[in-house]
Specification:
The complex is a heterodimer of chains A (179) and B (201).
Chain A (H helix, E strand, L loop, with lengths): L19 H21 L3 H20 L7 H15 L14 H4 L7 H5 L2 H13 L2 H11 L4 H8 L3 H19 L2
Chain B lengths: L7 H5 L5 H13 L1 H56 L28 E3 L14 E3 L14 E7 L13 E9 L5 E10 L8
Antiparallel strand pairs in B: 1-2, 3-4, 4-5
The chains are: A mainly alpha (179), B alpha+beta (201).
């Protein structure tokens, strides 16, 4: 792990000086996990807490001889369940449409956002809010790069239900966004 | 509405079995309506992704300032800790024993006999608890070759941060070298989860 020897190498990766494999996992999944949790309604600080906890749980899981299969969906499931436990603030984010003016100032816009017209963005925001919780969660996990099999594990659904839910949610978004 | 239109999203996500994927591809060649739907799905996927970024990005950006602040605080605390220690009169047996002159760049494990764990007498900084002070050879690190004798200090996280500020089990290791005049230089702080290596195959 000498490659990470930037002086004072924070944020606090629990794997900073240990297994390369674990550190790679942390680097790859930390950001998608954070984004998923924030989109579920957690604050940035809460999301950071949950992600740290999830990786420490993973450490304990592996130390206890737990399965090394499907680590990605394992982490998302742990994080998802912890977010569920903070239900009081659960729907804060996607329960109300985010404001394009507030969230898309020109100087902050990524290239992807720049091409996203403001009006279309507002329509999408409303369309996302009209989805069911399951539809939203499926799309969020899909946007996090998870396969249907992994989404099924996180949300404890069958794979075919995930496929149907994703398809239905996408159809709704296309119709309501008038793409 | 074509039969295949129900499978377009699954096809886009590479979730269809090979035989069904082939059917969808054949159908797409023939049906401009479904090609249009597929494009719409692609566009909405990208827009949804961008929306997620927009929803989390302002928060994610703010959060990046936090680790930096923690780092700055940790460095200040460590420097204070070390400077106080150097002023405290330490019994000879508890002094940090530097490795021999011209230390080899090959590094030994801290578990080797050269590592000594000493407990310092109570210092004026009672609120900073230092559990152990480890003097050992420097770790291998191509990007940070210490020219002078170097030491590592393991510090429990609760000595630096208020309770609950860091996950349980995380501690910090400070690498630093000591200049001839006794001052601490080239300080580097690394978080560490002790015992993790046991979990790896």
């Amino acid at each position: 792990m000498s490659g990470e020897s930037v002086p004072i190498a924070l944020p606090l990766s629990p794997f900073a000086t240990d297994s390369v494999e674990a550190a790679t996992l942390y680097r790859e999944l930390r950001k998608p996990l954070l984004r998923y949790l924030i989109c579920l309604g957690l604050s940035s600080d809460e999301a950071q807490d949950v992600v740290q906890d999830a990786f420490l749980s993973l450490h304990r899981h592996l130390a206890a001889g737990g399965s090394q299969e499907n680590i990605r969906s394992w982490l998302f499931r742990v994080a998802h369940n912890q977010a569920r436990n903070r239900q009081n603030r659960y729907d804060r984010r996607f329960g109300t449409p985010i404001d394009a003016e507030k969230h898309l100032p020109l100087d902050q816009a990524t290239p992807e956002l720049a091409v996203l017209e403001k009006e279309k963005f507002q329509r999408l925001a409303k369309a996302i809010c009209s989805l069911t919780v399951a539809e939203r969660e499926c799309l969020l996990l899909r946007a996090g790069g998870l396969r249907y099999r992994e989404i099924a594990e996180v949300l404890e659904l069958s794979i075919s239900t995930v496929g149907d839910t994703v398809s239905r949610a996408m159809k709704k978004l296309v119709e309501k966004c008038d793409v | 509405m074509c039969d295949s239109s129900e499978k377009l999203v699954a096809w886009l996500d590479h979730e269809l079995p090979a035989n069904e994927a082939v059917q969808v591809e054949r159908h797409l060649d023939a049906c401009s309506e479904c090609r249009g739907r597929l494009d719409a799905y692609k566009e909405v996927s990208a827009a949804f992704d961008a929306y997620c970024d927009a929803a989390s990005w302002p928060r994610a950006r703010r959060s990046r300032a936090l680790p930096a602040a923690i780092a700055a605080g940790a460095v200040a605390a460590l420097l204070a800790l070390f400077l106080v220690q150097t002023r405290v009169s330490v019994p000879p047996h508890a002094r940090i024993t530097p490795p021999p002159a011209n230390p080899p760049t090959v590094v030994r494990s801290p578990a080797s006999s050269s590592a000594t764990v000493t407990h310092l007498p109570p210092s004026p900084m009672e609120n900073v608890r230092h559990r152990h002070l480890v003097a050992t050879a420097p770790r291998p690190d191509a990007s940070w070759p210490p020219a002078e004798p170097a030491v590592q200090i393991a510090i429990p996280a609760e000595a630096l941060f208020p309770p609950g500020a860091t996950p349980e089990g995380v501690s910090f290791v400070a690498d630093l070298s000591i200049a001839p005049d006794g001052s601490a230089q080239r300080l580097r702080l690394r978080p560490q989860l002790i015992g993790l290596e046991r979990s790896q195959p």
